[in-house]
Design brief:
The structure holds two protein chains of two kinds. By secondary structure, chain A is mainly beta. Chain A has no helices and eleven strands. Chain A has strands at 4-7, 10-13, 19-25, 33-38, 45-49, 53-54, 62-67, 70-75, 85-90, 96-97, 101-105. In chain A, the strands form two sheets. In chain A, strands 2, 4, 5, 6, 9, 10 and 11 form a seven-stranded mixed β-sheet that branches. A four-stranded antiparallel β-sheet of chain A has the order 1-3-8-7, with no helix packed on it. Chain B is mainly β. In chain B, strands 2, 4, 5, 6, 9, 10 and 11 form a seven-stranded mixed β-sheet that branches. In chain B, strand 9 (92-102) and strand 10 form a beta hairpin. Chain B starts with a strand and ends with a strand. Classes of the chains: A mainly beta, B mainly beta.
Chain lengths: 106, 122
């Protein structure tokens, strides 16, 4: 089974900051990597698919990059509504989520 | 508008059974692959099970193999998860989730239900 490891597990940051979250796969998954945002009490929301493709309706301050085993989600100029938990998910072989990264207000 | 509405959650004793249902609307159900994803209280997302459009291919995470069964009824636009031999560690919100597959980009989950809470406790 493919394991997904995110880092950091949590981070404290401020509005306007640039945030980078990394996701590492236990084996190569090509570019079959998706990113989701989840707010408390809500279902997750798709942000990025296939490593770097922005889902329709998602602000352009969100971007993704990477291939193989190493991937990043970047949020430029963090907005108040971006404080949430972010998950990566591989779809190369079955499906696996990372453990999540909680982005908190400093 | 795409809608996925789960039902059937509740409190069940360890060793018991429960069947979750997901009613789909707003899209052509029989051309989409589907999943169940769960989230234990205060924990992260865990993919549980997948089913192909026809139901001929199913996948499970290791911890539920032999205990859970995913199925679908395309005539009723419905997805199901039969959960047997339930354990305390199965306590979670269970989400019904639609896969969107493209040849170029693989699959991603593009729509989620609101979730159904399953509590396994004596």
């Amino acid at each position: 089974d493919i394991q997904m490891t995110q880092s950091p597990s949590s981070l404290s940051t401020s509005v306007g900051d640039r945030v980078t979250i990394t996701c590492r796969a236990s084996q190569s998954i090509s570019r079959y990597l998706n990113w989701y945002q989840q707010k408390p009490g809500k279902a997750p929301k798709l942000l990025i698919y296939a490593a770097s493709n922005l889902q329709s309706g998602v602000p352009s301050r969100f971007s993704g990059s990477g291939s193989g085993t190493d991937f990043t989600l970047t949020i430029t100029s963090l907005q108040p509504e971006d404080f949430a938990t972010y998950y990566c998910q591989q779809s190369y072989s079955s499906r696996t989520f990372g453990q999540g990264t909680k982005v908190e207000i400093k | 508008e795409v809608q996925l509405v789960e039902s059937g959650g509740g409190l069940v004793q360890p060793g018991g059974s429960l069947r979750l249902s997901c009613a789909a609307s707003g899209f052509t159900f029989n051309i989409y692959e589907m999943n169940w994803v769960r989230q234990a209280p205060g924990k992260g997302l865990e993919w549980v099970s997948y089913i192909s459009t026809s139901g001929s291919t199913v996948l499970y995470t290791d911890s539920v193999k032999g205990r859970f069964t995913i199925s679908r009824d395309n005539a009723k636009n419905s997805l199901y998860l039969q959960m047997n031999s339930l354990r305390a560690e199965d306590t979670a919100v269970y989400y019904c989730a639609r896969d969107y597959r493209s040849q170029e980009f693989g699959t991603r989950i593009d729509y989620w239900g609101q979730g159904a809470l399953v509590t396994v406790s004596s």
